[in-house]
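Repro:
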Amino acid sequence: MVKSLLRKKVVAESSVGTATQEVQEMLSTLGIAAVIFGPVNRVEYFSPSAVVLGVIRNGKLASDSLLALVRKAGRTGLPQEGQIEVPLGPIGEGTRKLSVQVALLPTQGTTIATFTDESEAERIDAVRRDFVANISHELKTPISALRTLSEAVTVASEDPQVNKFSAMMQSQVERLSALVQEIIDLSRLQDADPLLDALQVDLDEAVNEAIDQCQVLAQTREIEIVRGPAVEVSVVGDRTHLIMAFHNLIENAINYSPDHTRVTVNTAVDKQIVEISVIDQGVGISDSDQERIFERFYRVDPARSRITGGTGLGLSIVKHVVGNHGGEISVWSSSGVGSTFTIRLPIADEINDEGEQ
């Protein structure tokens, strides 16, 4: 019986070794950055990519935070994930940010940790945002010059044909200016976290200001903006960004509605969530377009957008603002009937006179 147990032990250990070897070969072949820990969390294997990322330096772990995740996975029996920073070199303060996923292997007491380099992705994203922001700011100067020149031509000339072309130039300049400003706004939204320095924002006041900003456009089309009942609640966030989001939705509803129709702005409270709905009587949006309308530069009707001066960024900006404030946006639409865009935001906790929530 003892011999039988010993044979089973040898077979089991052989199977474990084979399985671990197969995992190691797979990780090496795929170029995955990984470290395998054996019993008592001792490093048994590390892939070449793990060395390249700096997880392993001189044959040792370069992060105590990683070991804490491994111990927690072993203690709970559950996969763990997190982020760690490893030094770029033996001297200096530079670090590389890595995403870590830790899981238990079928082998008894064996754990694997895999790594993804977040620093490079963040660096590329930062370079892209900086480029977009810088080029957008640089474009504002020539746009302003073109606007001034077109206005000067209009004033100086009495030729109807010249004034016609000057008016067309001014229209395109205004459209280009709006596009550049929206690119700048979107770039800022991607960089900012409004909840870090958040204030309580009176929702009714923000909605009313957005409506006021759209009144002139609505009046030129003889479109009535109807305001539903007030809700008298506050949300936490950036007042300017929220007004921008509400303004974009209302302006969008006006642009895609026939003359002499109505745009309704309703607010309602559902438990600890406030809903802001913008309802139009416009052309509606097909099901296939609804899946893409929040993408940058996507326009349901490019020809109509050229007439109204739409840039294709308005709804993308709305989605970013709402997401940054911990909310969500949805759309209901039917062709020939109209559309309803609904923003849902968490209501701010009430604060008493002593400042306690």
